[in-house]
Amino acid sequence: MQGFGRRGFGGLAISTGAGLGLAAFGARAQAPAQPAAPEIRLGALFPLTGPAGLFGDESFRGVELAVEERNAAGGVLGRSLRLVRADAPDEAAATAEARRLSQGADRVTAILGSFSTAIALPASQVAELAGLPYFELGAIGDAVMERNFRWVFRVAPRAQDFAATALDGVALLAASLTRSPESLRLAIAQEDALGPQSVAAAQEALAAERRLTLVQRATYAPRPTDLAALVQRLRGLDAEVVLHAGAPGDEILLFRAMRDANWRPRMVIGTAGGYGLAETARSIGADFAGTMSADFTPSAVNERVAPGARAYAEAYLRRYGADPRSGHGLACFTGTRIVLDALQRAGSTERDRIRAAVLATDIPEGSTASGWGARFDERGQNLRARPVLCQWQPAPAAPGSPPGLRQVVIAPAEAAVAEALGRLGL
């Protein structure tokens, strides 16, 4: 995609230059060349290093693909776009990098980020104080949008959307077992951090509303080295379904502890993060088969509700030489497209006109590569972004090779490409 853009614009510059030279030959004076329109600089603030570096890089790739696509089509307002990378592996770096992007010669037109609620909070606060539009493409914690900021917009779904999708997985599991959802014993396992807290609180409230049997909401300290004590606690509660909301990497600790304890619930339903990552499936192996997750839309989705998902995966493969690693890239690709469309409609890079264009956005659901639509409320939250229910299922393997796993959409029905499996493990 990037190479096509360079060839296209390179050819245009050569042919235009040659035409001007012939027309001016023999003329008494040649008109001075018009200066090129200044580029539009956009900050891309993600954890590009550190524990969440892989997720940040995957998210950045989605932004990068959308920007390269737009530049190949002529840019925005007739101006080319340039991404200014900002590495924010922790809260302190997020603050420092957001300040850099909002001041002086490094100031950008807008910031796009950030994957993590812990990173989004300080970065968006700096942007708000600087009067700089900030677009959150991936962090789902409630706190991001609860401050009533004027210049902060979230394209991604909310924690409550992910919580509802996870509980839809409970109903799907119950149907496969020919049991009622109320008869299943649920436990929430939650890291004591902002994003997981938002998801777990919403799950607890929804479980009560749906009259489900929640035996406990179990929390554990951030950055654990093992989750053996948590697993023993869940086992003692006779939990049949574990709803897990934690940091990337916690899912590996959970499955390792379950294996060591020789215990397996009927189902684990995770929430985004490492649950949607191909590297997680390879690391855990066969035990991860059947695991469900409320997640960002992966490439294996019904194109009727996510037109362009397959084309995104193909473009990703051409650009990076590998398949997409998770749905985070597709989410950021879709989100960036929505943002760039608003910038074009704004007709200017002036912040009030950008805000007005964002709030006037009206894109129906089922018309983007992730299946999202876009309609923002007065607080700046997109109300037409939805997660999907995914499951890791056996994938076709080459002769003589062990079976692999791939993440597929199993709900909602119109987005599904596979039937749900009612068990963990192969």
From TrEMBL:
Keywords: Amino-acid transport, Signal, Transport
Superkingdom of origin: Bacteria
InterPro entries cross-referenced by the UniProt entry: BCAA_transport, Leu-bd, TAT_signal
Pfam families: Peripla_BP_6
UniProt key word Transport: yes
Domain Leucine-binding protein: 39-381
UniProt protein name: ABC transporter substrate-binding protein
Lineage summary: Bacteria, Pseudomonadati, Pseudomonadota, Alphaproteobacteria, Acetobacterales
